[in-house]
UniProtKB/TrEMBL annotation, chain A:
This is Glycine cleavage system H protein. The glycine cleavage system is composed of four proteins: P, T, L and H. Its cofactor is (R)-lipoate. Belongs to the GcvH family. InterPro entries: 2-oxoA_DH_lipoyl-BS, Biotin_lipoyl, GCV_H, GCV_H/Fam206, GCV_H_sub, Single_hybrid_motif. It comes from the Bacteria. Coiled coil: none annotated. It comes from Sphingobium naphthae.
Length: 123, 383
């Protein structure tokens, strides 16, 4: 399994043709206390960059974009009852949705963990 | 990800200024954002935890961005009564009132606190006023234009303003200044602490008991350190200030109140005492009288929202297919444990328990008009 990162502060775990997407620990830290996560319906197809989810913190709503193109095959139903999972475990149990990739070459331009760490340090 | 700093965009092109406690906030781990032209702390450990702390203990807020003004001179009371709809002549020394500046059409230019000074505070001035930070220069301009030359207005921008709020605020402040224990809600006084003059009022904007403390900027750090050394006091950011005041049903200028809305419609008629309603003689009086007689076309109301999805400022409100209003501030209410909102709704749909729908990202969510405050006020009044 490989983990990729975007400059929009999302992480993507790829296993075969399935990609699990979430927001990074840095992102949840910036957002503050998360009170609601609006997830896409299963079966929705996204082009890279489409609005995919909305994270509501106490102070604001923030869009999460589809980091890659694909079809939603599963969403994290645990977030309905416990949106704060995104704060406590953003990069594991706080995942958002899984996509069936339509174009694996889109992964090529993304960062690995070391590059993302460097990117965050530069902000 | 986008939109992480909802307050930052309020700022225009001017460079942000630093307030006296800027370095203090940063040393305490605050996340700073631009607000009302200044770098301000939005949060320290997190809005939910800070909000809960203020409801249970005591929180220290830096509100030094607000405008502190003093007024003195011949005829100051009657001059201010031209600008404010509240009874100033009947305002006793050391007493404070909530009031507002109105334009000729009765629209609200700002909301504010006005007090009668005493004991020689602020160089012996007569009246003290605290106005909103984002509007203070407009307010000053408006008042310069409308006050007679005999009245001297002083913008005390060398003063910092701290708010200590929460059920433990009384004990906390009394441990530094025992005499403050005698103050009741909306009373104020001049106190001296370690040689520093402090003008303290028992008031605030969280719905909790507490104080607002005007302190010379150069002494603000000393006071903030002394307060935060107490076990019941922590610094609290603007984020929790907003969620606390929303639960308390207190309107925020620039959001719930604007020049487009009037005092009676905003449910702030309590700020206009009987004599002023009858006699008038203030800018905007005609609108007040008309709305008292005929009722306003729309009202400021509270909304409770079903489910967990917050409705934010700007969300449209519907009764069936008819648009009847808009949310002016909204978010998740930590003490209530659910989303709540403040809104403007046309009068026929403004009665308590009226069922409405709010449109959020193309979906309708169920809401109902709710009494405010959402969380009961706990001011310290006479027993």
């Amino acid at each position: 399994m490989s983990r990729y990162f975007t400059d929009e502060h999302e992480w993507i775990d790829v296993e075969g043709e399935i990609a699990t997407v979430g927001i990074t620990d840095y992102a949840q830290e910036q957002l503050g206390d998360i009170v609601f996560v609006e997830l896409p319906a299963e079966g929705t197809t996204f082009e890279k960059g489409d609005d995919a989810a909305v994270v509501e913190s106490v102070k604001a709503a923030s869009d999460v974009y589809a980091p890659i193109s694909g079809e939603v095959v599963e969403t994290n139903s645990a977030l309905e009852d416990e949106p704060a999972l995104v704060n406590s475990d953003a990069e594991e149990d706080g995942w958002f949705f899984k996509l069936r990739l339509t174009d694996a070459t889109e992964l090529e331009g993304l960062m690995n963990e070391a590059a993302y760490k460097k990117f965050v340090a530069s902000l | 990800m986008s939109g992480t700093d909802d307050v930052a965009h309020l700022e225009e092109d001017l460079p942000l200024q630093d307030l006296p406690l800027d370095a203090w906030h940063r040393a305490k781990g605050a996340r700073m954002v631009g607000f009302a032209g200044y770098h301000m702390p939005i949060q320290y450990e997190g809005i939910m935890a800070e909000h809960a702390w203020v409801r249970e203990q005591a929180g220290l807020f830096d509100v030094s961005h607000m405008g502190q003004l003093s007024f003195s001179g011949e005829g100051v009371d009657s001059a201010l009564e031209q600008l404010l709809p509240s009874d100033i002549q009947g305002l006793k020394p050391f007493r404070q009132r909530y009031s507002m500046l109105l334009d000729e059409e009765g629209g609200i230019l700002d909301d504010l606190m006005v007090s009668r000074l005493g004991d020689g505070a602020f160089d012996g001035a007569d009246i003290y006023m605290v106005v909103n930070g984002a509007t203070k220069y407009d307010d000053i301009g408006w008042m310069i234009e409308h006050l007679p030359d005999e009245v001297v207005m002083n913008h005390m921008d060398e003063q910092a303003l701290l708010a200590l709020q929460g059920p433990q605020a009384g004990d906390a402040l009394a441990s530094l200044i025992p005499e403050t224990a005698d103050l009741l809600f909306m009373q104020s006084g001049l106190f001296t602490w370690r040689g520093v003059p402090l003008w303290i009022s028992r008031s605030g904007y969280t719905g909790e008991d507490g104080f607002e403390i005007s302190v010379p900027g150069e002494d603000a750090k000393l006071l903030a350190d002394a307060l935060c050394a107490l076990p019941q006091v922590k610094p609290i950011g603007l984020g929790a200030r907003d969620s606390l005041r929303l639960e308390a049903g207190l309107p925020l200028y620039g959001h719930d109140l604007t020049p487009a809305v009037s005092t009676i419609a905003a449910d702030l008629g309590f700020a206009i005492q009987k004599r002023r309603r009858e006699e008038g003689g203030f800018i905007g009086h005609a609108r007040v009288m008309k709305e008292l007689a005929d009722g306003p076309g729309a009202r400021r109301v509270g909304l409770r929202i079903e489910g967990r999805l917050p409705a934010r400022e700007g969300a449209k409100i519907y009764a069936g297919s008819v648009e009847v209003g808009a949310v002016t501030s909204g978010g998740f209410a930590p003490t209530v444990g659910a989303p709540i909102a403040m809104a403007w709704v046309s009068t026929p749909h403004s009665a308590i328990d009226t069922a409405l729908e709010i449109e959020v990202r193309g979906k309708r969510i169920a809401a109902a008009v709710a009494p405010m405050p959402f969380v009961p006020h706990r001011y310290r009044r006479k027993a």
